[in-house]
Amino acid sequence: MKRLFLVLSLIICCAAVSVAQNVTRTQHRAAVAQDDVTTGTMTIRKPEYICISTNEGKEQLIMDGTKFTMTMGGKKHVTDSKKNAQFSTFHDVLQAVINNQPLPTGEDLSVTTQKGLKTITITPAKKKRQLFSSFVLVIDTKSSAIRQLRMNGRKGDYTDYKMQ
Fold first, then answer.
1. Backbone angles phi, psi at 132, to 5 degrees
2. How far is CA 43 from CA 3, 30, 119, 134, 146, in A?
3. How far is it, in rounded angstroms, from Cα 19 to Cα 82?
4. pLDDT at 151 exceeding the cut of 50
5. Strand partners, 90
6. What is the DSSP letter of 61?
7. SS3 of 62-90
8. How far apart are CA 93 and CA 100, in angstroms?
9. Considering the entire predicted model, what is its pTM?
10. Per-residue exposure over 62-81, b if at least 16 CB sit within 10 Å of its own CB, e if not
11. Is pLDDT above 50 for 3?
12. Do residues 138 and 111 lie in contact, with contact meaning Cβ atoms separated by under 8 Å?
């Protein structure tokens, strides 16, 4: 009986710290006329895990601690925010949002609030071979839920995730 109670308690605890939302991913390529639109889910587990999975799991964006893994078009890209300055502020912001903590401050970070939404723009210092030129994260100010994540590419390309 004690084991059953322990198992049920663990299940309830895991359910309490894990949040899932539906997501629509729009991938825009400047050289291609039509955007690629797919659907999937976003799962958040505290203290610092996010998985956005679309196109039946073929496209993924995962933050697990300081490690970022992106699978797009069959190619897997892995980086760590401790080693990649472009992702350092992005990691700090996502961790603060997940854990409902105050946002960090910095030169590469701007925050605006309008109509119940907080827009956080992260523009890392320009460097060669930079994967993204900026990140834009939109948060619902009342529920603290992530509503949108947009990763802007170097030449007008972007990947936009909208959460319902």
1. -130, 145
2. 28, 29, 21, 23, 11
3. 26
4. yes
5. none
6. E
7. EEECCEEEEEECCEEEEEECCCCHHHHHH
8. 10
9. 0.82
10. bbeebebebbbeeeeeeeeb
11. no
12. no
pLDDT at 6: 37
Helices (H), the chain: 2-17, 85-98
Cβ pair 79, 125 in contact under 8 A: no
d(CA 22, CA 2): 36
State yes or no: pLDDT of 9 exceeds 70: no
Rg, C-alpha atoms of the chain: 17
Beta bridge partners of 158: 28, 152
- Which residues fall within 8 angstroms of residue 66, CB to CB, at 6 or more apart? 80, 81, 82, 91
| Token pair belonging to 32 | 């291609």
pLDDT single digits (tens) 110-129: 999 999 999 999 998 776 67
3-state secondary structure of 32: coil
Q: What is the pLDDT of residues 47-56, one digit of tens each?
A: 889 999 999 9
Q: How far apart are CA 65 and CA 80, in angstroms?
A: 9
Peptide bond just before 124 cis, omega within 30 deg? no
Q: What is the largest CA-CA distance in the chain?
A: 62
What would the two tokens of residue 63 be?
A: 């933050």
